Amino acid sequence: MPKKVGEIMEAFGEFFSTFALWIWGILAIIFVILEIAMTGILQIWFAIGAICAGIVAWFCPDNIIAQVFTFIIVSGVLTAVFTKVFSEKGDNPLVSSNPVYTILGKSALVTKEIDTAKGLGQITINGDKWSAKSANGEIIPENTKVIVKEIDGVKAVVEIAKDE
């Protein structure tokens, strides 16, 4: 015979209030592990939110709503504030922490003729040499100014700059 919804909720409440501190602690550890394993800075704010919710659980073990509310507010505010801070500094870890993508949209100079059909071509951008190929397959002569459109494996995909 199925239990009434009220009894199920009461049982859940008793379980959660008994193990709330453990649950928030385990969540914080999971978020820290995810932060270490992944690029960018996002999960750390959820780990801090879980720690704060755990503190609320220590003082109010029966108040699940306050714990969840604390987790949501602390995590949300930290994520919003620090995403904005990193964005204003031009160092948004949520976008990509891979420096390869910083050359997208930048201009470069062809140092070796680009012939995509033959697999030849090289550009220099920010003092670094990159293998390159043409976005539309055209041959691009040496000393031509190009724009990096995308990255394909280890090659920059370029097209001739409009002001050329």
Question: What can you see in these coordinates?
Answer:
- The protein has 164 residues and is α+β, with helices and mostly antiparallel strands.
- The chain has two domains: 5-88; 99-160, Nucleic acid-binding proteins (OB fold (Dihydrolipoamide Acetyltransferase, E2P)).
- It contains three helices and five strands.
- It has helices at residues 5-37, 43-59, 64-88, and strands at 107-115, 120-125, 128-134, 145-152, 155-160.
- It has a five-stranded mixed β-barrel.
- Helix 1 (5-37) crosses helix 2 (43-59) and helix 2 (43-59) packs antiparallel against helix 3 (64-88).
- The termini are far apart.
- The model has no long low-confidence stretch (mean pLDDT 84).
- Most strands sheet: 5 strands, mixed, barrel
Class from secondary-structure proportions: alpha+beta
Strand order of the largest sheet: 1-2-3-5-4
Average residue pLDDT: 84
Taken together, the total number of domains comes to 2
Strand and helix order: HHHEEEEE
Percent range of helical residues? 40-55%
- How far apart, in Å, are the first and last alpha carbons? 79 Å
Instruction: Indicate the proportion of strand residues.
Output: 15-25%
Q: What is the number of strand segments?
A: 5
Separate helix tally: 3
